[in-house]
Amino acid sequence: MEENQNTDINQTQQLHYWGNTPEEEYYTLQNIKSTKSFFTSPRGLSLFTKSWLPKNISSPNYKGIIFMVHGYGNDISWIFQETPIFLAKNGFACFALDIEGHGLSQGIKSYVPNINLVVDDCISYFISILTKNSEFQNLPKFLFGESMGGAISLLIHFRNNIMLNGAILRAPMCKISEKMRPKWPIPQILTFFARFVPTLAIVPTTDLLDKSVKVPEKREIARMNPNGYNGKPRLGTVVELMHVTDFVSTKLYDVSIPFLVLHGSADVVTDPEVSKELYQKAKSKDKTIKIYDGMVHSLLFGETDENVEIVRNDMLAWLNDRS
């Protein structure tokens, strides 16, 4: 985490996850440049997007292009962007959008009625980046997905719309393990009521931030996110994620893209055993898994600075070897 980040838990609010330094000034200090805009998806949704680019490198000389997908309840404008900032400082051009119902994008807050439509949105946006920037065509192209974004990244890979050189999956939500999956008849009850009131936010769950972010000061920073969602999950979203993970879990043998999986052994939000299963079953010839002893879900922000640095360096080394 950057040295000037303010982690004073007594502060009621700060402008950005790093503190109160104005955004453009902070990016300049990090030697990167950033843009933000709205992208209209093929189905007419207005989706908020951002880029993080190396400042003193011309675009034909970028190490690669990274298309990034955030997780459930998260967005691209708060702690998520610590990762693309780091990658941009190291020569990679990063692009991401707030998916439907998240961050500044259109939709009911944290309601994901159809993950396949979200995949369509992501693919359309990523292709638009390549279409507008012809110099990107010959650069290595990677996906990066966190948690639910990891599942979305695999679905993007299965579509095969973009020629990709690899994917980084941080604690991917590939399958709901048996020890975490609701027992019968709970899934059936949820599915029944979701038909009538899909947006109802009543599904009981533990505080995901408490489970995801290990360092208390960083947990407080994560809670300050003005566009985040900490309410109960909506019925329709939970049912959709159960269906998606059931589907992805049956397709692990079909994963052929080079990939790096990053997972903490103490993660209770997504199951590291499922990541091991992905690594074992995938037919990818180039596949790597890193299980970090004692680390939890938020590997790239919520751990100690020393642990974050370990994970970052593993990720960067993997990218550099393929760029």
TrEMBL record:
UniProt GO MF annotations: lipase activity
Any one cellular-component term (Gene Ontology): membrane
Top-level division of the source organism's lineage: Eukaryota
Domain Serine aminopeptidase S33 positions: 62-303
Database matches in Pfam families: Hydrolase_4
Protein name as annotated: Caffeoylshikimate esterase-like
Native organism: Nicotiana tabacum (Common tobacco)
